[in-house]
Amino acid sequence: MRLLTMCCFLFVLLALTPRVLTVDPGVKAVLTDKGLHYASHVGAAFLQENMNKVNIPDIEGDISIGLLGSVHYRLTGMTVVQVNLPEPTVSFLESTGVKVGMDGVNIALQGKWHTHYTFINDGGTFNLAVLNIGMSAVLQLGSDEHGQLNMTNSQCDSSIGGTQINFHGGASWLFQLFVNSFKGFITEEIQKRICPMIKQSVETLENGLADIPVSFRVTQNLLVDIPLLVSPIVQSSDMELDFKGEFYSVNHHTEPPFSAGPFELPQPAGFMLAVGLSEFSINSAFYAYFSAGLLKVNITDNMIPKFSPIRLNTTSFGIFIPQLPKMFPNLLMLLQLYTTNTPMTSLRSDNVTLSVSGSSKAYCIQPNNTLTPLFRLDMNISFSSKLFISEEKLKGLVVLNNFTLTLGSSEIGPFQTGSLRDALLKGIKMFLLPKVNAKLNTGIPVPVTKNIQLVNSVLKVNEGFMEIATDAVISPPEPRN
Ligand SMILES: *[C@@H]1O[C@H](CO)[C@@H](O)[C@H](O)[C@H]1NC(C)=O
Ligand SMILES: *[C@@H]1O[C@H](CO)[C@@H](O)[C@H](O)[C@H]1NC(C)=O
Ligand SMILES: *[C@@H]1O[C@H](CO)[C@@H](O)[C@H](O)[C@H]1NC(C)=O
Ligand SMILES: *[C@@H]1O[C@H](CO)[C@@H](O)[C@H](O)[C@H]1NC(C)=O
Ligand SMILES: *[C@@H]1O[C@H](CO)[C@@H](O)[C@H](O)[C@H]1NC(C)=O
Ligand SMILES: *[C@@H]1O[C@H](CO)[C@@H](O)[C@H](O)[C@H]1NC(C)=O
Ligand SMILES: *[C@@H]1O[C@H](CO)[C@@H](O)[C@H](O)[C@H]1NC(C)=O
């Protein structure tokens, strides 16, 4: 019996443990306490700016005036005149989400009052100060069946220190007499509305989250799937989001022959957030290109830089293949260059390596434009680079690690590939690498969105993944008018 209970308990525990994944995430993001505080600070500032646009629902009710019955009143057209929002308190709530609290909020409102007593209608304006409002709410975070981040307001408390109200116009002098009994009503009515308003705002936010796509196009040929694989993993000082982070070709939604491995994204001490990008994620993009047949290029003589002494024609290639100009005198050539496998990146401590296997099929172009096959060269090439971020730009230096070349097949008989390899090596070192390195020396700007800019970013390449730890500057969205 005890064993059975124990088994059940274990089973429940396993079912509840969020880290049990069937697929390892390709991309992870960690939001720290610092990031949470900054985000809430921006949020509060945005709220402060936009409080005057908040729609305040009308309040109405009846006040008893003793034996004389009751007066029906309505407070309408309430607008915020002034508001003072103190810095909110925010914290992560382990395994749940985020707790937000605010104390000592004061709001000054103005509006119109209307009363109806028997057949007498009266009205005027009023000023209302609501003092020392306190509220605290828990935002529970999760992910839905599509892998979208979702949130609900699971707990809410509110309190009001007091209200001051002044009526103007009409028989307001009479009204003012009832203010004390009235105040209680108003205070209660307002307090009753705080949590529903918070709930409503969270729902609005939640609807916004539901609109964020979990799959989108990044280039003409590439899309990325980034659903959450599990609910956010909230700990006392940070929150981790685990995304699938897999790239696919727009036209061929096929899985690569490799899969994501586990990696641990360290807490980015001192930064607001960190993003971890796995080797898998990068390689899935290469696979997408490769499987869609996009890693192919035709090279013709006019693409060879002017300064190159070697031209893409059978005369020029006579230096490497003596029989070629004899068999096909003075014809232009075409090289079909293609990868024979998915180019693979491997990330090691401070070292990004890219290995490419490819072939190059050579043709000569006959005067009638038919292509006559000549030979095929098989190549393996590997580059290594140190990558870093400086001034919010991705920079680095790429070096050639290794380059091998063999003759795969030949329609013109065998030939030695040594001098051809040396010439290609020279081309890579004198033409390709300087071009790439010039680009990496200038730097590639790290992607930013209209509202979020990354600052103080640091890139670190670790075993199996690269980590970008960063602070952010958020410019709140332009308020909708
Ligand atoms: C998120 O969505 C899932 C599936 O619809 C639901 O079970 C869960 O309660 C939601 N969680 C939150 C925090 O809204
Ligand atoms: C390369 O040239 C061949 C022969 O002309 C052609 O069939 C092929 O489509 C071209 N490939 C690319 C990527 O341009
Ligand atoms: C081939 O290249 C050589 C230089 O190596 C040049 O003199 C010759 O004109 C070129 N022939 C053709 C057909 O382009
Ligand atoms: C980087 O890694 C590759 C392969 O893992 C290795 O060949 C190369 O020497 C390394 N480069 C540096 C600078 O450590
Ligand atoms: C083009 O020229 C080559 C070489 O002269 C010849 O073998 C081939 O049959 C010709 N092709 C056509 C379509 O005329
Ligand atoms: C390239 O690498 C593959 C796999 O590592 C190997 O089978 C092949 O022989 C290599 N080719 C050359 C030209 O080095
Ligand atoms: C370069 O490639 C050759 C042949 O594939 C291999 O034997 C050698 O280990 C490679 N060197 C490095 C540094 O990767």
- Helix/strand order: HEHEEEEEEHHEEEEEEHEHEEEEEHEEE
Q: Look at the structure and give the CATH class of the largest domain.
A: Alpha Beta
Largest sheet report = 7 strands, antiparallel
Measured by DSSP, the beta-strand proportion falls in 35-45%
Distance between the termini: 65 Å
DSSP strand tally = 22
CATH arch. level architecture of the largest domain: Super Roll
CATH topology of the largest domain: Bactericidal permeability-increasing protein, domain 2
Instruction: Determine Rg (CA atoms, Å).
Output: 34 Å
What best-fitting shape do the alpha-carbon axes yield?
A: elongated
Domain unit count: 2
Ligand inventory reads: 2-acetamido-2-deoxy-beta-D-glucopyranose
What is the count of DSSP helices, taking H or I runs of 4+ residues? Answer: 7
Q: Can you characterise this structure?
A:
There is one protein chain. The strands form four sheets. Strands 14, 15, 16, 17, 18, 19 and 20 form a seven-stranded antiparallel beta sheet that branches. It is built from seven helices and 22 strands. It is elongated. Helix content is 24%, strand content 45%. The N terminus is likely disordered. It has 481 residues and is an alpha+beta fold. β21 and β22 form a beta hairpin. The chain folds into two domains: 160 residues, Bactericidal permeability-increasing protein, domain 1; 254 residues, Bactericidal permeability-increasing protein, domain 2 (Super Roll), CATH 3.15.20.10. The structure holds 2-acetamido-2-deoxy-beta-D-glucopyranose (7 copies). The site of one 2-acetamido-2-deoxy-beta-D-glucopyranose has 3 residues, from loops.
